[in-house]
């Protein structure tokens, strides 16, 4: 029988390609994580990682075992939730933060009533912080719909994917009539964008990398308007180009009404992703898991 702690250690080392980062997330020493991996390899009688002074990567056996380890841990988590649900209640407060109201409106707010009927003893607190989040200043249970930067900044956080879609470039017909339709990346530099005041820099368009199809490049352009919301509305008024996820409800509506049209589709970033982050605190896991699992189960309606 495999110890859950050893499987968690293995999955984390595979995730971060680092014993140090895995140890940090588990709040253990690097030596303790290394010992758990060694014991697991001894039990399996197969090496899980190729270790050099520069890299740590999975062996072929390790890649196959990783899939099964994740399945086992997911079943373990599901069993925890089921056992707690049999107690008949979950209680406490869940503090959630997002970086815009639209994310709440599309992925949470329509189903809050149903969640409250299931878990009447859970108090929900929803906040919006439009600036880049800093865990030293912003303490929440769940960080909802946040970019990859938060995981890089705070690798101890756990995360699940919330949304993955193409990141497109859009403009109104009137804007393109007045300023011309860019035919290549170089021509973008003569255009205007509607930027975000907390982006750094705040005058860039994100495009697909020339050298790496899954990577990204940026183009700096003039940004006469910076706003934390209503970018698509301003773009529809003909005030500039915008970057936006193609699955956003407002983008779909503006495209359907021909108030916005796609620009340079061949240069769109193929896969932009936002995440749900949450604290690694065992005592909080049941109610946090219940919240995340419930709202992710509504994904088909987003």
What's this, in brief?
The protein has 302 residues and is of the alpha/beta class. The protein is 39% helix and 25% strand.
Net shape: globular
Strands, count? 13
The biggest sheet, with number of strands, parallel, antiparallel or mixed sense and barrel status, is: 7 strands, mixed
Using the 3D structure, state the CATH architecture of the largest domain. 3-Layer(aba) Sandwich
What percent of residues adopt helix (DSSP H or I)? 25-40%
The top-level CATH class of the largest domain is Alpha Beta
Count of runs of 4 or more consecutive helical residues: 12
Low-confidence stretches: none
Question: What number of structural domains do the residues give?
Answer: 3
Beta-strand content: 15-25%
- Average pLDDT taken over every residue: 88
What would you give as the CATH superfamily of the largest domain? Periplasmic binding protein-like II
Rg over C-alpha atoms, rounded to the nearest angstrom: 22 Å
What is the CATH topology assignment of the largest domain?
D-Maltodextrin-Binding Protein, domain 2
Distance N terminus to C terminus?
A: 40 Å
Judged by helices, strands and strand pairing, the structural class is alpha/beta
- The SSE string, one letter per element, is HHHEEHEHHEEHEHHEEEEHEHEEH
Pfam families: HTH_1, LysR_substrate
Domain HTH lysR-type: 2-59
Organism: Psychrosphaera aquimarina
Family: Belongs to the LysR transcriptional regulatory family.
């Amino acid at each position: 029988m495999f110890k859950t702690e050893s499987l968690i250690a293995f999955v984390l080392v595979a995730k971060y390609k680092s014993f140090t980062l895995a140890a940090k997330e588990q709040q253990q020493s690097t030596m303790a994580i290394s010992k758990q991996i060694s014991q697991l390899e001894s039990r399996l009688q197969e090496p899980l990682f190729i270790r050099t002074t520069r890299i740590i990567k999975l062996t072929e056996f390790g890649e196959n075992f990783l899939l099964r380890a994740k399945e086992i841990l997911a079943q373990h988590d599901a069993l925890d939730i089921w056992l707690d649900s049999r107690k008949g209640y979950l209680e406490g407060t869940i503090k959630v933060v997002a970086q815009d109201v639209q994310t709440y409106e599309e992925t949470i707010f329509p189903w809050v009533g149903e969640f409250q009927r299931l878990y009447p003893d859970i108090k929900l607190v929803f906040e919006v912080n439009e600036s880049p989040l800093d865990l030293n200043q912003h303490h929440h249970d769940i960080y909802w719909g946040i970019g990859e930067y938060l995981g890089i900044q705070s690798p101890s956080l756990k995360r699940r994917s919330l949304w993955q879609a193409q990141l497109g470039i859009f403009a109104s017909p009137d804007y393109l009539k007045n300023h011309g339709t860019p035919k290549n990346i170089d021509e973008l530099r003569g255009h205007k964008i509607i930027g975000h005041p907390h982006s750094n820099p705040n005058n860039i368009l994100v495009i697909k990398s020339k050298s790496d199809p899954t990577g990204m490049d940026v183009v700096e352009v003039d940004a006469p308007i910076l706003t934390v919301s209503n970018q698509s509305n301003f773009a529809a008024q003909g005030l500039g180009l915008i970057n936006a996820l193609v699955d956003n409800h407002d983008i779909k509506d503006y495209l359907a009404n021909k108030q916005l049209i796609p620009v340079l589709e061949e240069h769109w970033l193929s896969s932009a992703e936002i995440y749900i982050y949450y604290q690694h605190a065992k005592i909080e896991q049941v109610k946090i898991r219940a919240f995340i699992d419930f709202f992710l189960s509504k994904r088909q309606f987003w």
